């Protein structure tokens, strides 16, 4: 019994302090035109200073556009190379499937590195429940 | 004593894992013109995919306008029916009382579904302390 | 052994509930022109209603400008007096050092009350890991 309570307490301690070991953060992008390029630069700087950070980018609404095949910033800069470089460093990019339906977009129109999630906002809320911080670029 | 420590550990476990049972999230609206309509759509999608989510919308500054009687989106869409439908699904909409004083607004000018909170930003901070995630539409 | 587990559980309880004692929140500013003045007003209101709140403002990108010597809002209002008053009430203002390099700015160009952090986004993520809520003005 005593051992059991020690185990319980230890497990609990591990759960509570897990978030101290590695910073986790979700970047929220719902307007690609104003947020994507600066957001991608933020991500690169983030990993340069904290290479072990676990980063998930969740996009929905007008935010998914930068993950589409051939997408470019108004300045003419292509997004795909920037995204690929970040995926290679462990960043996950997710697209909201409700947005796909509402905007009649198909998964095939997105770059191969894109992942999909049933609802962007539900995903953002759940990640925070799991200890992720939140950054809106 | 052993039993006591088990109880303590269990209570603790319950406290720590409470947030896993139900996702809680605060939506922050401080500019109704750019955020309210897309935010209300986000909320509907959120509850469609996660019906048990506990959602509080906190508005302040220019964000309170969509909760006023007769408020409409620039496109002409009335907000009140959208808000009522979400309230019926458990969403709470809150208006900052400091904003009321600064903008000389009265509670009577707001729809019946609106709740009030002494300070919008204090409320947003406190909800996060209580395990709420944060989403800025 | 029993005592040890009690101590462990108590320590754990203390850690888990620490955030209930004092609200902590990070304000994120990455565009001074649109966020700084309203953000500074939010901060003042925040402390008026919750004087014990621990508040850190992290700025990066175009968000650092309001902390530079002589900075003014487009309306002509000087920022420094507002910032000084908030520092006197315990608010910390931080500037991202990556931004300094990218924009060729020097620490000497900032007001004395400004602090510096290696990376704004890393800092924002880490503060949330430490129990800070997040507000984007």
Task: Describe this structure as you would to a colleague.
Three copies of one chain form a homotrimer. Chain A is of the alpha/beta class and 137 residues long. Chain A has helices spanning 2-21, 32-49, 80-88, 97-102, 120-129; strands spanning 24-31, 54-62, 92-96, 115-117, 133-135. Chain A has a five-stranded parallel sheet, sandwiched between helices. The longest helix of chain A has 20 residues, at 2-21. Chain A is globular, with a radius of gyration of 18 Å. Chains in contact: A-B, A-C, B-C. Chain A binds chain B through residues 1-2, 4-5, 8-9, 12, 15-16, 28, 30, 60-61, 98, 118-119, 121-122, 124-129, 134, 136, and chain B through 2, 5-6, 9-10, 12-13, 16-17, 19-20, 23-25, 38, 42-43, 45-46, 48-50, 53, 131, 133-137.
Spatial gap, N to C terminus of chain A: 50 Å
Largest interface: A-B, 26 and 29 residues
Physical arrangement of strands within the biggest beta sheet of chain A: 4-3-2-1-5
- List the quaternary state of the chains: homotrimer
Number of strands of chain A: 5
Number of helices of chain A: 5
Which series of helices and strands of chain A comes N to C? HEHEHEHEHE
**Residues in β-strands, percent of chain A:** 15-25%
Give the overall shape of chain A, derived from the CA principal axes.
globular
* Rg value of chain A: 18 Å
Q: Strand count, sense and closure of the main sheet of chain A?
A: 5 strands, parallel
Counting helices, strands and paired strands, the structural category of chain A is: alpha/beta
The parts of chain A where pLDDT drops under 50 for at least 5 residues are 12-19
Assign a percent range to the helix content of chain A: 40-55%
Task: Indicate the mean pLDDT of chain A.
Answer: 90
């Amino acid at each position: 019994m005593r051992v059991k309570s020690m185990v319980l307490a230890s497990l609990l301690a591990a759960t509570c302090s897990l978030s101290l070991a590695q910073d986790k953060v979700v970047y929220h992008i719902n307007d690609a035109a104003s947020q994507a390029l600066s957001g991608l630069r933020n991500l690169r700087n983030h990993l340069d200073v904290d290479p072990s950070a676990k980063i998930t980018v969740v996009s929905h609404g007008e935010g998914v556009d930068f993950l589409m095949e051939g997408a470019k910033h108004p300045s003419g800069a292509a997004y795909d190379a920037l995204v690929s470089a970040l995926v290679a460093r462990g960043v996950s990019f997710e697209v909201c499937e409700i947005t796909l339906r509402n905007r009649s977009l198909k998964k095939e129109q997105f770059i191969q590195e894109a992942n999909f999630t049933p609802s962007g906002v539900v995903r953002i809320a759940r990640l925070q429940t799991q200890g992720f911080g939140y950054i809106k670029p």
